[in-house]
Design goal:
The protein is of the alpha+beta class. The chain has nine helices and eleven strands.
């Protein structure tokens, strides 16, 4: 398996949309001061730069999910509970602390399509399910991935009671860094609709990213679902945009996929993420 940066289909769409009309988009391209609506307890730029420098070592073409979520958590994004594990027994102990059902994932910078290789197992209901998933992944690790550096595994809380959305940051030749937002799950491929906004964000930009897409209707509650916590989502988008702008010298791309937006009053949570460091 060749070593290459992981690239999400969502980020590819965002990049194409930033330079063409091939996908339905809304775009606010204003420039201005960073948003005053971002979370009030953001880490300092110097702290974030230090974290990014540590994680985005020169030899890393992409940053694995666990490290990417550590980075985003430092930037103020709400991240799903997860624990790194190296052995079966550690996985059992982590699952007991987190509470079933859980998710088991292999962690590696250079494995771009983990689900296709059977390296993501969801809705593990008990220790028996977890053991079976561990054994399947261990077999792949020693077989197809024998020559690929592996960082271990993570046991993660299973989050399913919410609306899946996607957010990311990529670069446009005209506008520079842009924040992209759209619906997640099966709807992202069905609708091929995203909203884009040039960074830095100004007050009101994140609200417009949400309100000017189909996501707004889904988040408001459809087919008997309760309204989602849009306020929490908006704050998450501000945190992502502000971090991406502050640390743009280190970070080339960020893909947060998905963010699960829980019912109103319960917040939102980043379930998976990818960060591509800037190499030049």
């Amino acid at each position: 398996m060749a070593r290459r940066p992981r690239r999400s289909r969502f980020i590819s769409w965002a990049r194409a949309s930033a330079s063409s009309a091939g996908i339905s988009t809304t775009c606010c391209a204003r420039r201005g001061s960073p948003s005053s609506a971002a979370p009030p307890l953001r880490p300092s730029k110097s702290l974030l730069s230090t974290v990014a420098s540590t994680l985005a070592g020169s030899s890393r073409r992409s940053i694995n999910e666990h490290d990417a979520k550590r980075l985003l958590a430092a930037a103020g994004l709400p991240v799903v509970r997860a624990e790194p594990v190296a052995t079966r027994d550690e996985a059992f102990a982590a699952a007991k602390r987190i509470g079933y059902p859980v998710v088991l994932k292999l962690v590696a910078d250079d494995v771009p399509h983990r689900s296709e290789l059977g390296l993501v197992a969801v809705r593990l209901r008990d220790a028996e399910d977890l053991a079976a998933a561990w054994d399947r992944m261990a077999a792949v690790r020693t077989g197809a991935l024998a020559n690929i550096p592996i960082d271990g595994f993570v046991v993660q809380q299973m989050v399913s009671d919410g609306v899946e959305v996607l957010a990311g940051v990529t670069s446009d030749a005209d506008f520079g860094p842009v924040l992209a937002f759209g619906l997640g799950g099966v709807l992202v491929e069905a609708l091929e609709e995203i909203a884009l906004c040039a960074l830095p964000l100004r007050e009101g930009d994140a609200e417009r990213l949400v309100s000017e897409t189909t996501a707004a209707k889904v988040l408001a509650g459809v087919r008997g679902r309760p309204p989602a916590d849009v306020d929490a989502l908006v704050q998450c988008l501000y945190a992502l945009g502000d971090y991406a702008w502050a640390d743009r010298s280190h970070i080339a791309e960020i893909d947060v996929n998905p963010i699960v937006v829980l019912p109103r009053g319960r917040g939102c949570v980043v379930v998976d993420a990818l960060v591509v460091p800037r190499t030049a």
